[in-house]
Amino acid sequence: MAGLKWIESMSNDNITKEEIAAVYPKVAATMADALGCDVEKVRLDASLISDLGAESIDFLDIVFRLERTFKVKIPRGKIVEDARGSLSESEFENSGVLTAAGAERLKTFLSEVPSARFPSPLKSAEIAKLFTVETFCKMVIRQQRAAGSAPAA
Predict the structure, then answer these.
(1) Distance separating alpha carbons of residues 106 and 100, to the nearest angstrom
(2) Which residue of 15, 35, 38, 95 is 20 to 30 Å from 87, comparing CA positions?
(3) Who's near 132: CB < 8 A, 6+ residues apart?
(4) Which domain holds residue 96?
(5) Is the pLDDT reported for residue 6 higher than 90?
(6) What is the mean pLDDT of the chain?
């Protein structure tokens, strides 16, 4: 069981600050352009919804722009799918609310999000409220790795 935990965390924990720093300028510029805000507001810890005023339609635009900028494919729902890891759908959520195991898994996966920002109970529909700029940097890096390409600065 410990081996499985290591494999699950491997996809998340080994993203380095240097890798994030390499993609951050392009991610920030892409988000600022998509959201019509100053790039200075697009800090790594900024919540896309609370701090930058993103709406659900903006997420689609941002993902499309990141795919084009970084030449990667980001499937819809990829963050939640990756966060769920080896948990089945019913182990992760029940009736639209994350289970205790699901919430813990999400907190581990979204390690860049302070624990205090996770409401309890957490509805699955509210997961996007947790996403930060760093969440999207990590997503780009994961997709670059999956595609076998070196992170593009």
Answers:
(1) 10
(2) 15
(3) 44, 45, 46, 47, 48, 112, 113
(4) 2-146
(5) no
(6) 89
